[in-house]
Amino acid sequence: MNAIASTPLVTALLATGAGVCTGWLHFASLERVTRMILDGKLAALGLQIGRLALLGCLLWLFAKGGALTLIAGTAGILAGRWLVLRNAQ
């Protein structure tokens, strides 16, 4: 089972799933950050920094996994974005 779990395809599939979840969270929280900024709340700055830090760390982990993992994870993030935009319209 260990040999199967370490294959690049399994890693890419896991990266895609993590990317979808993170992409959905990142883009779904954008509306909240925007409302907080418009209301003049300083906490919006912390939330925005947290959103970008989470996304940056995840992309860094994907890059450490190799090109296939990075591409699959980035595709997952874009799929998460698509889910948020689809529900917004």
What does this structure look like?
This protein has helices at 2-5, 8-38, 43-64, 67-88. It has one domain (13-88). The protein has four helices and no strands. Helix 2 (8-38) runs antiparallel to helix 3 and helix 2 packs across helix 4 (67-88). The protein is elongated, with a radius of gyration of 15 Å. The model has no long low-confidence stretch (mean pLDDT 92).
Low-confidence stretches: none
Q: Helix and strand string, N-terminal first?
A: HHHH
Average pLDDT for all residues: 92
Principal-axis shape equals: elongated
End-to-end separation in angstroms reads: 43 Å
Helicity range: over 70%
Largest sheet: none
Total number of helices:
4
Q: Topology of this structure?
A:
Blueprint: H1 2-5, H2 8-38, H3 43-64, H4 67-88
Helix pairs in contact: 2-3, 2-4, 3-4
In short:
By secondary structure, the chain is an all-alpha fold.
What brief labels describe this structure?
single chain; mainly alpha; elongated
